[in-house]
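Here is the promised in-class demo. Please do not try to memorize the tokens; focus on the logic of going from shape to residues.
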């Protein structure tokens, strides 16, 4: 397995927050680290909704992985994981290639959970990849172009967002701003009242993890922006042009965006590893996969039974650091220690000059200050100076020039085959 003059081989599969955090912590520590991903770039998922609403270009939220790996003394392997031979400590990729490892870290991310709702997988659009965001943007812009050619038409256009999480609220609020602020300047021939934004949530409140006062603020801000809210809404079926509730009520929907939960990707079942709730990988307290000594699962794909974590960037980053620390401990002959998530707080933006922030020790604020804090944090955590500068320019231009016909980005589509990111 390990040669006398070379360090342990660590294979990290997945280049989201968790995987990148692991690689950076293992850098130049005597380990031979390989970062593998089915795409050649990492996607900054928290800003995908800005791509979907034509506020950012896809390249603004994508960072080349070969450059990242080189920076931290690792190598990059492009490919999709197809199988894991835990006994032989071998990972097999879809292109037929194999990579031996001493430690395997799975950080492949998740996909949408549709909870058995008829038609949800076929007729709704998730927002997890660059492909998702660009597809949604093109659907939205195509609808606006159609309406501009039929300015006297009687058919309205409705966009429905399913799920009142941070993603759902951010998408609904930004779409409402696009309609209220951007539409009169960019599409003056379209009556904004013909464009409807609907947000549906099965729970009685939006933004479940937040304090009730912040939930109420978010709800009021969306209503103020003209978003049609439906709480306690149980969906039975989704079709190409409508939402059907459990009560039998039918609502028109030209585009349905899904932001209502996550599940493990289908390929996990082929890896021969134990799965927990939602098809995610079952892990022990130290984040090692149940029954495995040398395989870790981290980030959204992991399901720690002792301490379930929210699907956010900060838990993924902390998991990545913890997994790297455990490998160092195991190599030093020390016993592993359990993972404990340190909640530093969370935030969500609702639209222009409106956001909610919830920190430790009961610190909470909202409004313009919260929005500026949200903007600053996301710009700082973007990978790459070029991305930070481009995102700052594009977002600033959007919010400063919407009323003058600016702020809508078109084109710059990623290649069709490589459009998806983790």
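The designed amino acids, position by position:
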């Amino acid at each position: 397995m390990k040669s006398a003059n070379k360090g342990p081989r660590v294979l990290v599969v997945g280049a989201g927050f968790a995987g990148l955090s692991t690689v950076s912590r293992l850098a130049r520590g005597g380990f031979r680290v390989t970062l593998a991903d089915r795409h050649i770039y990492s996607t900054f998922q928290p800003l995908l909704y800005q791509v979907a609403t034509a506020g950012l270009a896809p390249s603004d939220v994508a960072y080349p992985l070969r450059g990242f790996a080189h920076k931290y003394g690792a190598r990059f392997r492009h490919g999709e994981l197809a199988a894991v031979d835990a006994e032989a400590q071998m990972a097999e990729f879809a292109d037929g290639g194999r990579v031996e490892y001493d430690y395997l870290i799975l950080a492949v991310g998740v996909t949408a959970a549709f909870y058995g709702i008829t038609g949800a997988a076929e007729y709704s659009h998730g927002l997890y990849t660059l492909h998702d965001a660009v597809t949604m943007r093109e659907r939205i812009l195509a609808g606006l172009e159609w309406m501009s050619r039929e300015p006297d038409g009687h058919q309205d256009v409705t966009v429905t967002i399913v799920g009142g999480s941070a993603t759902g609220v951010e998408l609904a609020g930004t779409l409402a701003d696009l309609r209220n602020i951007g539409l009169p300047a960019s599409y003056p021939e379209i009556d904004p009242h013909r464009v409807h934004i609907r947000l549906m949530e099965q729970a009685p409140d939006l933004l479940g993890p937040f304090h009730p006062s912040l939930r109420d603020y978010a709800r009021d801000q969306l209503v103020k922006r003209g978003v049609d809210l439906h709480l306690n809404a149980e969906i039975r079926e989704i079709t190409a042009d409508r939402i059907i509730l459990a009560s039998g009520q039918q609502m028109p929907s030209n585009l349905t965006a899904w932001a209502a939960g996550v599940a493990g990707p289908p390929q996990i079942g082929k890896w021969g590893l134990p799965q927990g709730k939602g098809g995610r990988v079952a892990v022990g307290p130290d984040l090692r996969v149940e029954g495995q000594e040398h395989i870790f699962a981290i980030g959204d794909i992991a399901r720690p039974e002792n301490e379930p974590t929210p699907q956010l960037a900060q838990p993924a980053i902390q998991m990545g650091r913890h997994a790297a620390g455990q490998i160092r401990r195991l190599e030093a002959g020390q016993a592993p220690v359990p993972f404990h998530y340190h909640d530093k707080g969370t935030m969500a933006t609702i639209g222009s000059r409106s956001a909610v922030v919830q920190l430790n020790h009961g610190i909470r604020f909202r409004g313009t200050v919260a929005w500026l804090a949200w903007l600053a944090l996301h710009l700082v955590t973007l990978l790459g100076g070029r991305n930070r500068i481009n995102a700052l320019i594009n977002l600033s231009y959007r919010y400063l020039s919407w009323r003058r016909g600016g702020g809508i980005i078109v084109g710059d589509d990623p290649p069709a085959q490589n459009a998806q990111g983790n």
